[in-house]
Amino acid sequence: MNMTRGEVYTAREADEFHTAEGCFILETWNREADPAVSIARARVAPKVTTRLHRLAGIVERYLILSGEGLVEVEGMESRRVRAGDLVHIPAGLGQRIGNRGKTDLVFLAICTPRFTPHAYQDIDPEPFPDSPT
């Protein structure tokens, strides 16, 4: 990463991976050299709800790109979301999102500071599912 000139980064579709949380993630921007922010494309299949979780010390925003969902954030009434909506999730609050549409729910997950796996805390009361094969 060069901090003195602009650059274009292209995420490779082949790098998308499925998480035990229940969604697919394509890391678009998550660099140690830029600890202020990370951006990932998240994709939730129809009839899937991600696990209830929180991010310790990280503020997250969901910018909905396509599809329809139901977002739950601790302290807020559940809310239907669709393309163009932005969900602001303060650090440490429980959160999850479910796809209520017939097509994939796709959104950008924008984290400040950048997402690191140790910040993820599963708080779902349901047992953790086996990892997908």
Word description of this protein:
The chain is mostly beta strands and 133 residues long. It has a domain of 83 residues: Sandwich (Jelly Rolls). It has no helices and eleven strands. The N and C termini lie far apart (33 Å). The model has no long low-confidence stretch (mean pLDDT 94). It holds the Pfam family Cupin_2. This is Cupin domain-containing protein.
How far do the termini sit from each other?
33 Å
> What structural class results from the helix and strand content?
mainly beta
Number of helices: 0
In N-to-C order, the SSE pattern is EEEEEEEEEEE
On the 0 to 100 scale, the average pLDDT is 94
Largest sheet descriptor: 6 strands, antiparallel
Shape: globular
Strand content: 35-45%
| CATH fold node name of the domain at 40-122 | Jelly Rolls
InterPro entries: Cupin_2, PKS_Associated_Protein, RmlC-like_jellyroll, RmlC_Cupin_sf
Protein name: Cupin domain-containing protein
Domain Cupin type-2: 43-110
Organism: Thiocystis violascens (strain ATCC 17096 / DSM 198 / 6111) (Chromatium violascens)
Short description:
Residues 43-110 form the Cupin type-2 domain. With 133 residues, this protein is mainly beta.
Q: What secondary-structure arrangement, pairings included, does this model have?
A:
Layout: E1 17-18, E2 24-29, E3 38-44, E4 53-55, E5 59-66, E6 68-73, E7 79-82, E8 86-89, E9 95-99, E10 105-112, E11 120-122
Antiparallel strand pairs: 1-2, 2-3, 3-10, 4-11, 5-8, 5-10, 6-7, 6-9
Task: Using brief descriptors, characterize the structure shown.
PKS_Associated_Protein; RmlC_Cupin_sf; RmlC-like_jellyroll; Cupin domain-containing protein; Jelly Rolls; mainly beta; three-stranded antiparallel beta sheet; six-stranded antiparallel beta sheet; 133 residues
